[in-house]
Amino acid sequence: MITVKDWGVARSGEKILQYTLRNSCGTEVRLTNVGASICGVRFADRDGNLDEVLLGYAHGEDYIGDVATCGKTVGRVANRIKLGHLEVEGKVYQLEINNLANHLHGGTGGYANLVWQSQIDGESVVFTLHSPDGDQNYPSAVDVKVVYQLSEDNELIFTYDADSDGTTPFMLTNHAYWNLSGEASGDILDHELQLSASRSLEMTLDHIPTGEILDIVSTPLDFTSWRRFRDDISTSYQNIDKKGGYGHYFPRDDWRKGELQEMGVLRDKRSGRAVRFLTTQAGCMVYTGNKMSINCPETISGGRYANYAGVAVECQGFVDAVNNPHFPSIMLHKGEHYHEKTIYKFETI
Predict the structure, then answer these.
(1) pLDDT given for residue 165 in this prediction
(2) Any idea which residues carry the catalytic annotation?
(3) How many degrees, rounded to 5, is the angle at CA 265 between CA 264 and CA 268?
(4) Cβ atoms 22, 1 nearer than 8 A
(5) φ, ψ dihedrals at 279, nearest 5°
(6) What is the pLDDT of residue 237?
(7) Structure-derived torsion over alpha carbons of residues 78, 80, 81, 83, reported in degrees to the nearest 10
(8) 177-178 vs 28-32, strand pairing mode
(9) What pLDDT score was predicted for residue 31?
(10) 129 with 116: CB under 8 angstroms?
């Protein structure tokens, strides 16, 4: 079942909408047309209790320009581009510098902060956006579609589709933050994560890849078996301490383009909840909400989030792939079709 309601008005005058998807398990997912975002998730713990487990805000207007990009579809290119430097077919483009010395998540006017067109289509909610040539100084025009569906198997399934009239870098992700004990329950440092990734990108303190891919087995970045965030949150390995926590990219082992594969599982022994991540994307960025407190709007529960209030597992391509030609390419060409799929499967343990 899908319902929709008015949820505010953007400064542009565009109506902000909130969609609610429910299944027979009692699971509820809420979406908004600001940033084609997931703005709420409720599913049962081991005892059948329903709680909000996704970080989000009380008001639709607060999804525009939020520092944390909470629950949003981010692009035209997710994550960072070093120094905002982009070269496409021999032409150099300078992108907005909006994160230290670098370009982040498509810029302040990127997809995350726009009001998308939206509609209900059967059991799905469909968001569409036309991104013109020169949008945030990216080359070529792109038509984008994001489709969400909540299954009776407790899976939130979403797909990204896009077509361009020329060559442009293109990579989307969803920036949801999870707290499986409840969004107002405190920090996620006792959550545990397991990933299908034995390597990580070596990254500078400001989250820019050096180009090297590290073997991380038996290090504080080794999530090939269950690892609790709290245990190594202060280690100096790969600047975890200086970053204030985890903020690292993990290529999936044996990734095969276009194939839906399990990326990992996040679990919370306190509530018995878990989220399983399946994706066609090449890997994921893990971010433990190290700076969630910065300019945080009023939250779903009426408070303000502190650092570590939620953890994001962002399924996406390689960070700064445009400046590292040995990484899998994120270039989208005219006549090619971009298609990626991710599933958040809600479980109990």
Answers:
(1) 98
(2) 175, 314
(3) 155
(4) yes
(5) -160, 155
(6) 97
(7) 150
(8) unpaired
(9) 98
(10) yes
pLDDT along the chain (349 residues), means of 10: 97 96 97 98 97 98 97 98 97 97 98 98 98 98 98 98 98 98 97 98 96 98 98 97 97 98 98 98 98 96 98 98 98 98 98
Would you state the pLDDT for residue 286? 98
Task: Give the contacts of 56 (CB within 8 A, at least 6 positions apart).
Answer: 30, 39, 40, 70, 71, 183, 299, 300
Q: What is the CA radius of gyration of the chain?
A: 19
Cα 98 to Cα 94, 266, 281: the distances in Å are 12, 30, 25
Structure tokens at 198: 């034995």
Closest by CA to 37, choosing from 12, 14, 3, 62, is: 62
**In whole angstroms, what separates CA 165 from the centre of its chain?**
26
Our CA dihedral for 23, 275, 281, 84, rounded to 10 degrees, sits at 110
Among residues 280, 62, 40, 43, which one has the least CA distance to residue 158? 280
Torsions phi, psi for 49 (to 5 deg): -80, 130
For the chain, what is the mean pLDDT? 98
Pairing mode, strands 192-195 and 331-332:
unpaired
pLDDT for position 30 = 98
Length reported for the chain: 349
DSSP symbols for 320-337: TGGG-TTSPP-EE-TT--
Task: Give CA–CA dist 277/279, Å, rounded.
Answer: 7
Q: Which residue has the tokens 């991104």?
A: 131
